[in-house]
Design brief:
Helix content is about 35%, strand content about 30%. With about 325 residues, it is α/β, with parallel strands linked by helices. Bound molecules: adenosine-5'-triphosphate and magnesium ion.
């Protein structure tokens, strides 16, 4: 396996106004080349800090990171030539229009004019920005501005792309256009390190994922591996006149609008589903989603904040 990013024992402590924050407490990660790797975790977990270190914008307090075999601390120049970054907070150059933003970015990276023009045209169509090509970046809506940043980076020929929440604030259609663009980048044998709070997105795009919590890697693996690593990997949604007490023997129960949600092991999940069907209650059984896993591992107990669970039976 070719490695795009190899991090060992990476720590980072921020010091400001006499206060110390340990943002990374020892991160080991191996990101294979030619695939999308997802970093997920709660706000403040350390994802952006890791991306800034691996993309040579921030020095680690200790540990090492190599990108495509080049040391990010000792040899940042070699790394910078081969990567492109969408930072979490980005302010594109406001006096340019959308076309210029993308085209000049590619030129600045050393791409010949003809190639830069061809790629700019293609990415503007791909991300539905073509009709806005002459619009000043400062006149774009927030989501369109974000798309323009995504366009710049995806049109580049960088081998490793660091995308820190590229789809935050995008409408559902635009989000899927970005997914397609990321998938195309992977077909071109590039590597994407992605952070996102949309766990359906993390699951749809990533070959592997790391769940970061408190500056450490809590879990790492393929989405399926991660989903199977919780004690109760199935979710059963039951509607109808069933009490919490009746459901408790089957697993972990949460009351949701119109019914109950039970997280259970496979056997119990099947049994409960059969029983509910026999009684004529609407029921559905499915593997736990990545979001379920996330909530079970790093969230509050299920049910405390589960507003989306309605009408899924
Ligand atoms: N410049 C800074 N100075 C001091 N503390 C910082 C700085 N940047 C980040 N931190 C702290 O480091 C920790 C990790 O932050 P980081 O931005 O890496 O988290 P994140 O996982 O990207 O979160 P989010 O999902 O909200 O983007 C947090 O506790 C944050 O407050
Ligand atoms: Mg962040």
């Amino acid at each position: 396996m070719e490695e795009a990013i190899r991090a060992r024992g990476v720590t980072r402590t921020y010091r400001s106004k006499g206060r110390e924050t340990v943002a990374l407490a020892g991160i080991d990660l191996t990101v294979p080349a030619g695939a999308t790797y997802g970093l997920i975790g709660r706000n403040g977990a350390g994802k952006t800090t890791f991306i800034r270190i691996a993309s040579t914008q921030l020095l680690p307090t200790s540990g090492s990171v190599a990108v495509l075999g080049h040391d990010a601390v000792a040899d940042p120049r070699s790394v910078r030539n081969r990567i492109a970054v969408i930072p979490q907070e980005s302010r594109p150059l406001y006096f340019l229009n959308v076309y210029e933003l993308v085209y000049l970015y590619l030129k600045l990276r050393g791409m010949p004019g003809t190639e830069a023009r061809r790629r700019t045209e293609a990415v503007l169509v791909e991300l539905s920005l073509d009709s806005r090509r002459k619009t000043l970046v400062s006149h774009l809506s927030g989501g369109m501005r974000r798309r323009a940043m995504v366009a710049m980076v995806l049109a580049s020929d960088a081998e490793v792309l660091f995308l820190d929440e590229p789809t935050t604030g995008l409408d559902p259609v635009a989000r899927r256009e970005v997914w397609s663009a990321i998938e195309r980048a992977i077909r071109d044998r590039r590597t994407v390190l992605l952070t996102t709070h949309y766990l359906d997105e993390a699951e749809a795009l990533s070959s592997r994922l790391a769940l970061i919590e408190g500056g450490r890697v809590l879990l790492e693996g393929t989405p399926a591996e991660i989903r199977s690593r919780i004690p109760r990997p199935f979710r059963v949604s039951v509607q109808g006149r069933v009490t919490r007490e009746e459901l408790l023997p089957y697993g972990e129960v949460a009351e949701v609008r119109g019914g109950h949600l039970v997280f259970a092991r496979e056997e119990e999940a099947r049994e409960l589903t059969r029983l509910a069907l026999a009684k004529g209650f609407p029921v559905s059984m499915a593997p736990a989603s990545l979001e379920d896993v996330f909530l079970q591992l790093v969230g509050r107990p299920i049910g405390e904040d589960d507003p989306e669970e309605e009408g899924t039976a």
